[in-house]
């Protein structure tokens, strides 16, 4: 009950914005540029068949593969940098520098390399997503107090035990934060990839509607995409609450 | 039980030996406090004993054998309780045994439960550390130190973060624990009264670099109560020690 009350102001504000949008769109009366929220909802309903059966699964597959690769890659990089200071010195600046590359601008190149296959989209997704995972999890490993490490050493623990018994559990909350950041990013990455060149997917669909001057049709897949991303983040948050009961008390 | 022989240690960041040819010995079953002002190097002595720092010269023996390369010969209780928040109290107690290895799950659980009862925390095993009060957390941390199975316990200002009333009751509690099991205890503190009340002997860090520790035998028999602190010879020892420490601290 309390939580619902806490969300109430945000909900009211959102609702007010939607009403403003609706009024503005109705006043403008140019659905190919600015469709109203109700028009978008109606269009979503009309397009439910292709959106849900063909394009949503295509985008989710791409997002899913990209996310899995990013998580594995991010964790590996974080572990490597934690295990060896020289690996940290070698990789850390490169990882940070990789984020200054405008991935979106390079994406057309990926389409040239991989064609219209799923891999050009996965690559965009991975490039956008692995960074926050690697950095956040690495921070998690470093958050461990040195006196806790010292104590384990006096118990006779080696590097492996310190990692398994201390660093891994201590980094778990960071890992969840990373995943919550990564989900929206991976969805954006997939959509950008599809926008640039694909045969299916919500990003592709949105672009196709653009060429048909169907404003509501451009928005419909994007709205669907955000809803799915929000649901995924909510699911991860729920899992996090179940698993981590001690957040912040380290 | 514990012997330092001409031990020398230098921090990389410093140009002098903070511990310079230090020798002292502690007999089995003694309760010895090391006192000195903050930053005088008393914690360094501990870190040498538990091998978190390497000696530059000299040797340290525990139970007659050099400590080099040995593990599990001393139980270390840090200043803060350092209970892992993601483990229950019971699981925290199991930690030193998990790391030592070679003990069955049932045996670990049995020993943890026994020790928990021993420190007066039976029934709290399934709680998370943050559900415990400061004094209870310290008792859990002490139980974890006991479960290292070592005869030599190194306690590094374990009560300094507690409020006054909790601190004095924890001191009395620790004294009863020691009077029962007579482990060898080396206790670091900067609180003169705490040192006198608990220990059979007090070692004072007179100067930094540490070349020697001045030893005072505490003139009171065990079992003790706080009343012994008001005996005239205890009061004069207290004044003595405070004077000594004051000379070092230039405000």
Notes on the structure:
The complex is a heterodimer of chains A (250) and B (251). By secondary structure, chain A is mainly α. Chain A is built from ten helices and no strands. The longest helix of chain A has 38 residues, at 159-196. Chain B is of the alpha/beta class. Chain B has two domains: 2-73 and 152-248, Rossmann fold; 82-149, no CATH class. Chain B contains seven helices and ten strands. Chain B has helices at residues 42-49, 89-100, 105-118, 134-146, 164-181, 192-198, 232-248, and strands at 2-9, 19-26, 31-35, 57-62, 65-66, 74-77, 152-156, 184-189, 201-205, 213-217. In chain B, strands 6-7-8-3-9-10 form a six-stranded mixed beta sheet, with helices on both faces. Chain B has a four-stranded antiparallel beta sheet with strand order 2-1-4-5, with helices on one face. In chain B, helix 2 packs across helix 3, helix 2 (89-100) packs parallel to helix 4 (134-146) and helix 3 (105-118) packs across helix 4 (134-146). Chain B starts with a strand and ends with a helix. The mean pLDDT of chain B is 90. The chains are: A mainly alpha (250), B alpha/beta (251). The A-B interface holds A 145, 147-148, 150-157, 161, 165-166, 169-170, 172, 244-246, 249-250 and B 47, 50-52, 71-72, 74-76, 78-80, 82, 84-86, 95-96, 98-100, 128-130, 148.
Q: H/E series of chain A, N to C?
A: HHHHHHHHHH
The fourth-level CATH homologous superfamily of the domain at 38-135 and 171-243 in chain A is MetI-like
- Which structural class fits the helix and strand makeup of chain B? alpha/beta
Number of helices of chain B: 7
Approximately how much beta-strand content do the residues of chain A carry?
under 5%
Mean pLDDT of chain A: 88
Total helical elements of chain A: 10
CA radius of gyration of chain A is 22 Å
Structural class of chain A: mainly alpha
Characterize the main sheet of chain B. Answer: 6 strands, mixed
Number of discrete domains of chain B: 2
Spatial gap, N to C terminus of chain B: 37 Å
Oligomer: heterodimer
Report low-confidence residues of chain A grouped into runs of 5 or more.
Answer: none
- Summarize the main sheet of chain A: none
Shape of chain B: globular
Largest interface: A-B, 22 and 25 residues
Total beta strands of chain A: 0
Number of strands of chain B: 10
Question: Which of globular, elongated, flat, extended, rod-shaped describes the shape of chain A?
Answer: globular
The CATH class name of the domain at 38-135 and 171-243 in chain A reads Mainly Alpha
